[in-house]
Structure formats: C-alpha cells, structure tokens
Design goal:
Order of helices and strands: HHH
Number of helices: 3
Structural class: mainly alpha
Shape: elongated
Number of domains: 1
Strand content: under 5%
Distance between the termini: 31 Å
Oligomer: single chain
C-alpha cells in the first residue's frame, strides 16, 4: 500500500496565521525558518490518538 498523506499544511495556511497574528505576510526567508521548526510544535501522536478516540468506537466491550 502506498503511503497516503492524511493531513498537511501549506504556505497559505502559514500565511493566514501570520496575517492574523503579526498582520503581514512572511517573507520567503521567514517561511523557510518556520518550515524548519514547525514540526517541533505539532504533537502528531496526540492528534492521531484524539482522532481515533473521537471517531472509532471502542470494540473492547
């Protein structure tokens, strides 16, 4: 089975947040800096765990 991307962020998402919090777009250099560290702030394990608990019924009854 080929790995399928389930969720991803793109530069439009990052720019949307930048416009909201600093009221301007990020430069290419700033985007690169963000790209290098953004994964450090995403708790992907908890996100997957929460999605499983929210959507999959516990079959251990």
């Amino acid at each position: 089975m080929k790995n399928k991307i389930i969720y991803q962020l793109d530069t439009e998402d990052v720019q949307l947040v930048a416009n909201e919090i600093i009221e301007r777009k990020l430069s290419s250099k700033e985007l690169k800096l963000i790209e290098d560290v953004i994964g450090d702030y995403i708790n992907w394990f908890d996100a997957i765990e929460n999605a499983i608990h929210q959507t999959i019924k516990n079959e251990k009854k």
